[in-house]
Amino acid sequence: MVLKTLRHGFFDGAYFPALLQSSKRVFLGYFSAVALGSALGIAISRFKQLSNSVGESLTALQSIPSVAWVPLALLWFGISESAVLFIVILEAFIPCALGVQNAINNIPPKLILAGRSLGCEAFDLYKRVIIPAILPQVISSLRLSWAFAWRALIAGELFISGAGLGQTLELGRSLSDMSEVVAMMLIIAIIGYVADNILFKKLEETVNYYS
Known about the structure:
Blueprint: H1 2-11, H2 15-46, H3 48-61, H4 70-77, H5 81-105, H6 109-117, H7 123-157, H8 165-174, H9 178-210
């Protein structure tokens, strides 16, 4: 019955709007989170006061599951796209920020001193020394951020109206259609596996090879 549901959903084109809408949401939220998280991670590593305040807060916030943010998102943004993006960005940018901070803090001090002795300062130091040094560890953080973003997307879509994998899953539950529910779970699992264990793993291996 699950295979029949999958075949019917794809051949009739019913699943494609859901896939497209979920893809748009997760990519927008993920890349926004990466930009915010990277900037915050650099700032936290550079300023000790931020590390002692914001950095510690991020560690605490990371332990909160994405579904726990749903009520707050609905209160602030209502049943809207903004609510889903808020959950995705919040869940994804925290591991990215902490990963960048830890990667910079783990750079050997001698490497920084060597860069400065060769005339690298400020932006040039980040461009030529710090960013190349942290890149392998940052890729691992981006991989983790993607996993958080993907789970947060599905959790957020369960509570909004319109197209999306999470909403299709919720529709199957409301109709007591077990084959639809399992079909959506398979699609979600396969997309998550391909992104995490093929795309990001390959990128991680490539960066580690050239590093």
